[in-house]
Amino acid sequence: EKTLKYFLVSFGILETAPAPVHSYTPANVEPASRPPWVTDDSFSQKFAPGKTTTTVTKHILPRGAPVPSPASTSAYPSPVSTSSQAPAIARGTVQRAERFPASSRTPLCGHCNSIIRGPFLVAMGRSWHPEEFNCAYCKTSLADMCFVEEQNSVYCERCYEQFFAPTCARCHTKIMGEVMHALRQTWHTSCFVCAACKMPFGNSLFHMEDGEPYCEKDYIALFSTKCHGCDFPVEAGDKFIEALGHTWHDTCFICAVCHVNLEGQPFYSKKDKPLCKKHAHAINV
């Protein structure tokens, strides 16, 4: 073993370490790594079963928004189970809370988690005290106003538009509601349209030409090469033939009389139509 260790050290494979120095910890000094329930006599009291704890959820405020003071910090806790959540909606969708009168029903408030005794609001699948359902930024009451949910908080339309709503690449106004993402930009769905027919694309495919988007129909009509034989476009990957000043699918370049394929064969032409040698002098073409 000593010989092997010497061999490894000689070739730089193993580094030797100095012999350990034995030491002891005085009885009145507690190591820093010891758990808190050993070093803190009041730990068990802090987390006794009868104690209650408060959890504060950190929210990302809009850019430019002042940081609230600790005393005024509030949070909208997430629902306990996913079954109580409202159906997923598109980002930026404008919503409105629904009012309910006082009744025997006593739901928990989604803001303060207290029982609501009296009229309440229902929004995002949760119930709220009317006076506690406010814009997370300007604190405006949203009891009778439209709101938008963003980053687990709610905002009035004005604050959402100012801080979160993307800008349309065409009309340069803020986008509220459904957003179209295309060409590394954001658009109103009604603003991202074909450069020729001006119809919105929706979820349809589009083609780019000279930096402009075109629907498939207009792109084919304006830019594609059409087969002179069948008048359908010659698409990428198709085999084609250039003859008589036109482009043909390889299967469309045939004799106008007997329809024999003329690819790689000598041919004649009459009235701009290809003919095989047998029908080179055909009258009815």
TrEMBL record:
Question: What superkingdom does the record give?
Answer: Eukaryota
* CDD domains tied to this protein: LIM1_ZASP_Cypher
Query: What are the alphabetically sorted keywords of the record?
Result: Cytoplasm, LIM domain, Metal-binding, Repeat, Zinc
- Protein known as: LDB3 protein
Give residue spans, biased composition: Low complexity. 70-84
What's in the GO CC field?
adherens junction; filamentous actin; stress fiber; Z disc
Matches recorded under PANTHER family: LIM DOMAIN-BINDING PROTEIN 3, PDZ AND LIM DOMAIN PROTEIN ZASP
> Residues annotated as region Disordered?
61-87
One GO process term, biological-process aspect? heart development
